[in-house]
TrEMBL record:
InterPro entries: HAD-like_sf, HAD_sf. Gene3D superfamilies: 3.30.1240.10, HAD superfamily/HAD-like (3.40.50.1000). It holds the Pfam family Hydrolase_3. The keyword Hydrolase applies. This is HAD-superfamily hydrolase subfamily IIB. One of its GO terms (molecular function) is magnesium ion binding. SUPFAM superfamilies: HAD-like. Keywords: Hydrolase.
């Protein structure tokens, strides 16, 4: 069995990556993919795309630009940086090197409206969030930087047919990956994902028990296999 992390974050969740070794890690919604220590892809915004994203008209929004090594933030007046921003030594948005930006995040009550406008004007960009379970958070990644692309790249690199892949997801950025995977496990009850799910797990609290049951079945199958 081969395993991979595919996450919308720019770094893999520490609580997951510290507990096991993974054959591949995809971050930024699949825009950056490592196979072991080998960087296979790192998507960047095309000419004019980042400028269009930053022309958002969301007064009072918190905005974060991510590069491979740093993050750059713009906060409304009087708003203190979040602890994770301080821990990552975030710098002012104005200092961001536009050619190196790999992802943009917005926090604002009207991100759904902005997402609709951006999808209409720049349909090639990957826009996720702005709906349950993250109605006030929006992520924009470059063309092709989505989880289905990451799953396809990883499966090909590991010589695994897509129909033999299993994917887990709980939010809208997982939809394209669950649709592509050979077997889709939905975590939670988001209606958007239900149509793609082969099985549904009630929530993250129940996911551990589900994975343990899968591991036990695999061990039993391996024990019965001829040596």
């Amino acid at each position: 069995m081969r395993t991979a992390i595919v996450t919308g974050r720019d770094l893999p969740p520490r609580g997951v990556s510290s507990r096991a070794e993974f054959d591949a890690v995809a971050t930024n919604n699949g825009g950056r993919v490592h196979l072991g220590e080998d960087l296979r892809t790192s998507a960047r915004f095309g000419p004019g795309d980042l400028e269009a994203v930053l022309a958002h008209e969301l007064d009072g929004a918190r905005v974060v630009l991510f590069t491979e090594d740093d993050l750059y933030v713009q906060l409304p007046p009087g708003r203190d940086p979040e602890p994770w921003m301080l821990a990552r030594q975030a710098r002012p948005l104005a200092e961001a090197p536009h050619a190196e930006v790999t992802k943009v995040g917005f926090w604002h009550p009207d991100v759904a409206g902005f997402a609709a406008r951006l999808r209409a004007s720049h349909p090639h960009l990957v826009v996720t969030g702005g709906q349950a379970p993250y109605p006030e958070f929006l992520t924009i990644t470059p063309t092709g930087a989505h989880k289905a692309a990451a799953l396809s790249l990883i499966a090909e690199a590991l010589d695994i047919p897509l129909e033999r892949t299993v994917a887990f997801g709980d939010s809208d950025n997982d939809e394209v990956m669950l649709e592509l995977a050979g077997y889709a496990v939905q975590v939670g009850t988001l209606p958007l994902l239900t149509r793609h799910a082969d099985v549904q797990v009630a929530g993250h609290g129940e996911l551990g028990a589900y994975l343990n049951a899968v591991a036990e079945r695999l061990e039993q199958r391996a024990a019965l296999a001829p040596s």
